[in-house]
Amino acid sequence: MDENLKKFKLIRNVIVIIFIIIILSSIRLQIAEGNKYKRLSEKNRIRMRYISAPRGKIFDRHGYEISNTRPGFYVSVIQSIIDKKTLTEVSRILNLDEQTISERMSKERNAYMPVKIVHDISYEQLALLEENMDELSGIEVGVESMRNYPYGELLCHILGYVGEITDDELKNDDTYSIGDYSGKMGLEIYYEKDLRGADGIEYIEVDARGKEVGRITEKRPIPVTHGMDLYTTISLALTESVAVYLKDYEKAACVCLNPQNGEVLVLYSKPGFDPNRFIHGLQPEEWQRLYNAPDAPMYNRAIMSCYPCGSTYKPFVALAALDAHMITPEKTFERCQGEYRLGRRTFKCWKEHGKLALTNAIVHSCDIYFYQLGRFIGIDTLTDRARKIGVGEITGIDILHEKPGLLPDRTWFERRYGKYWTEGHIFNLSIGQGDLLVTPLQLACMYTVFVNNGKIPTPHLIKRDKISYRETNISTDAIQLVRNALFGVVARGTGTLAR
Amino acid sequence: MFKKIDHKILAPVIILSIVGLLMIFSTAGLSYALRQGIWFIVALSLALTFSKVSPRIWYNISPFIYAVTIILLFVILFSHGVYPKRWFRLGWFSFQPSEFAKLATILILANFLARRKKMESFADMFIPLLIATIPAALIFVEPDLGAAQIFFPILIVMLYWGGMPGAKIFIFFSPIISAAASFSIYIWVFYIIALTVFLYFHRQLGDFVYGLVSNSLAGLTMPIVWHSLKAYQQKRIISFFSPWVDPQGMSWQIIQSKIAIGSGRLFGKGFLSGTQKKLEFLPERHTDFIFSCLGEEFGLIGITLTLLIIVYLLYRIIVLVKETKNRFSSICACGICAWLGYQTFLNIGMTIGLLPITGVPLPFISYGGSSLLASFMAIGVCLAITKSKLEYS
């Protein structure tokens, strides 16, 4: 059993060597460096300090900063050091009640970790604090970068806003700490991960009252990673002109797209709000007022409110008919005499057009032609082509809470009106009235089908190299015909104002 | 009644558990200490009961025990529990199957290896590797990397004691080193050259070919796989395998643990007078980092004494391993020794800053019922082996 004895000795020696290494390391820690660690432990002098990462800037398509950062002073407290006197004094200076400060402090489990209790204090408050710093223990004042929206209300719905992290968000993502900011709406939340960056950490040595004495050199600091900048497709100048143009309206929305690649130049909704106000944190009543206001300023009408699109829908009815090869452009129906009778109901046209073929029906926007065309091609063809161009579906723009609108089809009508829904519903549908609902952005996207020969680019706010398209598979001939008619709308029809 | 019990094994275990109870009282308070006390009594009676069970029975039922643990590990993965899925919650106590899986795997490995009289080819290592990998993989996805990786050192030691030549074991597992070394081309080239020289002097053609082919494959595919991953996936993997890279919590804990131990100096600050433990710097101060508090309150003297007791215990077990005539019992005790020794080394190495944070408990001392129970069961098996150590079958 010589072999076994050899192996026994090897295992025994490994055990002994490992434990000698452990003992030696303990001797190094406890004897050689014992005094240093003793000193550090006496007041637990090492502290970890987070350096908040500046949030990435957001630029418009020409390079103007539409969202940037500015420095702000914050105050943080260390639970284990702060005393009653300091608490009273600080609450007086900062005009915060003691209860609120204590509640905030107690959220942090580590009693030695500074907790930010207030952001962006005024210069007067800063001066008062600095003046009394000798009597205040457990208080830190520091600089952090604060979000700033130089154009305030103008771009609020695109940019969104940032606000302090909520308790729920903290629970779900442990990379945030108390007092951090995170995006809450618009691009700020959609691109939160890119914009945010990563906080740096430095290790500092502090005295008994929590005041910094120096850096700890043994521990390498973690450098701050700046948030990534976002380059948007938004045109600031164009948005400003739109805002001026719409200044007399109380509620309005406007979308401008580059139809070739889906870049969004303007996404404007009115009324808006000033995103800068959220940085200090809104009082509950202020928030309620904003949220429940009858004109809903937080609501991005360009992507969230759905409207019947009216006569702008007619070209798509024509497109459906041509694509399904159910008519030729020469197709005519009963002449327009300003009204059309269907059973007991009368459907009106806005003008007496006489007999028209398809192109002129589009150019002069004849309702009566389209009532009959809609009835002729039937509900299923109508809804099938509408679905292909994206009615009733979100466009996929890079902002949250986009609404899909509503495309009523046969089953929808049956569910809504029972078996007895009538041709009248198709009539309304054919001129974009009644139950059909689209968002302004959707309508803009739908029209790009005429530019790209049947492809609809996904609208987006951030410049990108690769553009995704929605394939509609609508025949090029049909698109060409309707496109030519649309030129006529502007040249000699109902759209001459746009010239 | 307990005359035949080997007190040289049982006594150090009881002393370590009492040290553990004292430290839990000091760091977490009376209620935790009482709870652990109840576990201690249960565990001790289990160990004494197990000491009466003949190793023959363990030999026979080991496949069954292994199957049950594997099923439990599966069940826990598919249960709708909280994440990470490490525990079964049954009323007021929770139960961690991964601790018992270690003992179950040791038993079945010993069973398998005991049947082989001669061990010399790579094929002989394949099935033991599979046996160890199944529970390890299930624990890995829980996820609990710390507990999952413990299976492999245990396996290697058991293979070695079971008669597999050390060089063979090294060559068999060497692709893992190659994969790890491939992150730096210089280290990898150096490693491959050293390996080739080693294989040349090893003078076995089969091993030479296997060694070079497997190492080259591992070393070459690893970077390809790695670069095909997206940046965020790489980041996720790095932080999974080396949580100490994440500075926000981990290195902070190491610093604080070192301060705690270092500030204890020679004699310590005295029982219950540690200062570091009162701060909430370590959420795991009564479990994974209990050794730091021991170092703080009892100083170098306390650490040395505790280590001596641990080394004595491990020594007694390997003496038992050497003296036991029955092959199954001997390999089984060897696995238990490897388990307790390796886990102790990982835990203490972590608290004094020698090793990365892996989150394994310190056997017998850390707070935790499952860990204590499983370790005591293993000791019970050892005690049973001492009674029959002179029997061949």
Which properties best describe this structure?
heterodimer, A: 499 residues, alpha+beta, Penicillin-binding protein 2a (Domain 2), Beta-lactamase, 3 domains, five-stranded mixed beta sheet, three-stranded antiparallel beta sheet, 16 strands, elongated, B: 393 residues, mainly alpha, two-stranded antiparallel sheet, 15 helices, 2 strands, 2% strand, globular
Strand elements of chain B, count: 2
The portion of residues forming beta strands of chain A comes to 15-25%
CATH fold naming of the largest domain in chain A: Beta-lactamase
Largest sheet of chain A: 5 strands, mixed
Q: What would CATH call the class of the largest domain in chain A?
A: Alpha Beta
Shape of chain B: globular
Total discrete domains of chain A? 3
- Name the CATH architecture of the largest domain in chain A: 3-Layer(aba) Sandwich
Number of helices of chain B: 15
Strand order of the largest sheet of chain B: 1-2
Q: From the helix content, strand content and strand pairing of chain A, which structural class follows? A: alpha+beta
- What percent of residues of chain B adopt helix (DSSP H or I)? over 70%
The total count of helices of chain A amounts to: 19
Entry summary:
The complex is a heterodimer of chains A (about 500) and B (about 400). Chain A has about 500 residues and is an alpha+beta fold. Chain A has 19 helices and 16 strands.
Reconstruct the topology from this structure.
The complex is a heterodimer of chains A (499) and B (393).
Chain A: H1 2-32, H2 34-42, E1 46-51, E2 58-59, E3 65-77, H3 84-94, H4 98-106, E4 115-118, H5 123-131, E5 139-148, H6 156-159, E6 162-164, H7 167-172, E7 181-183, H8 186-190, H9 192-196, E8 200-206, E9 212-215, E10 230-231, H10 236-245, E11 252-257, E12 264-270, H11 284-292, H12 301-304, H13 314-323, E13 339-342, E14 345-348, H14 358-363, H15 367-388, H16 410-417, H17 423-430, H18 440-447, E15 455-457, E16 469-471, H19 476-492
Parallel strand pairs in A: 2-10
Antiparallel strand pairs in A: 1-8, 2-3, 3-4, 3-5, 6-7, 8-9, 11-12, 13-14, 15-16
Helix pairs in contact in A: 13-15, 13-19, 15-17
Chain B: H1 7-28, H2 30-50, H3 55-78, E1 88-90, E2 93-95, H4 97-115, H5 122-140, H6 145-149, H7 151-162, H8 166-181, H9 185-202, H10 205-228, H11 231-241, H12 247-264, H13 290-323, H14 327-351, H15 369-387
Antiparallel strand pairs in B: 1-2
Helix pairs in contact in B: 1-2, 1-13, 2-15, 3-4, 3-5, 4-5, 4-7, 4-14, 4-15, 5-7, 7-14, 8-9, 8-10, 9-10, 12-13, 13-14, 14-15
